[in-house]
Amino acid sequence: MIISAVFQKELEDSLCGTYLSADDFLISEGKDNARNPMINIFYRYFTGQPKYSLLLYIRKGSFKVAKRPGKVLELESIELTDKGEVLLEIRKWIDNIETEFKIFNEVNEIIKNREQRTERIKGMEQSLSGIGNEQFSTDEVNKLIQRVSTLEELFLAQLEEEIKDKELLRNEINKFKKDISFLKMQVSILNKKNWLFAFDSRISQWRKRNPRAVEALDIKNFEVLPEAVKMLTHSEID
């Protein structure tokens, strides 16, 4: 054994979190390329490339810890000089693993949404290929702002019909009004294609928060939007 029995015990104690214990990990000893002692710690239930791993390099007067996952990055390394700091770093690593388990479904949903968003953008780029990168004319800006204002009135009325909880309704109305205000501001700044992308982003958010209201929007408000926006709105709801 390279490390002392005392340090082995301290390592195993540091691997105990709220849910995990030392029994969940494989601990092995070895040497790095410079022939310095190193400790390998792997979560035992992942096969193939270790998803959760910690490598402890023991050098004269210092330590290096390389852990996966880190607090911010997938792989993080840190140089330490004190054994107590090493044990603390291992406990932080255990916290990171347990946190990942807790939010696993949320992270998967984020990744799924990102992939869906990428596919939707590809589809939009194809369907909007006939729309140029020119700016809206002054007349188009005025008409679009007027139509978005009409959309705002009708959608707010739909929210009031759908949402009975006053606090929730107030929050949704505030979010929606901010979105509409920002879209109006962007009409004069963004070109036509990019404004439609911005509009698509807002439609997607509205649909996630209030799907029934957006479905009703498709029925009641289809005629208030310009042709390009109609096409976008329809593809979002279908």
What does this entry look like structurally?
Keywords: Coiled coil. The protein has 238 residues and is an alpha+beta fold. The chain has two domains: 98 residues; 129 residues, no CATH class. Helices cover 59% and strands 14% of the residues. It has eight helices and five strands; from the N terminus they run H-E-E-E-E-E-H-H-H-H-H-H-H. Strands 1-2-3-4-5 form a five-stranded antiparallel beta sheet, covered by helices on one side. It is elongated and about 80 Å long. The C terminus is likely disordered.
Describe, in short, the structure shown:
The protein is of the alpha+beta class. The chain is 59% helix and 14% strand.
What topology emerges from the helices and strands here?
Elements: H1 5-14, E1 25-31, E2 37-43, E3 53-59, E4 62-68, E5 76-80, H2 83-102, H3 104-127, H4 138-162, H5 166-187, H6 192-209, H7 211-220, H8 227-237
Antiparallel strand pairs: 1-2, 2-3, 3-4, 4-5
Q: pLDDT average, as an integer? A: 84
SSE string, helices as H and strands as E: HEEEEEHHHHHHH
Task: Kindly state the percentage of residues in helix.
Answer: 55-70%
- Biggest sheet features: 5 strands, antiparallel
* Number of helical elements: 8
> Structural class of the helix and strand makeup?
alpha+beta
Fraction in beta strands: 5-15%
* Strand line-up of the largest beta sheet: 1-2-3-4-5
Rounded radius of gyration (Å)? 27 Å
Q: Which term fits the overall shape?
A: elongated
What's the total count of β strands? 5
Supply the number of structural domains: 2
Low-confidence stretches: 219-224, 233-238
Ends: how far apart? Answer: 64 Å
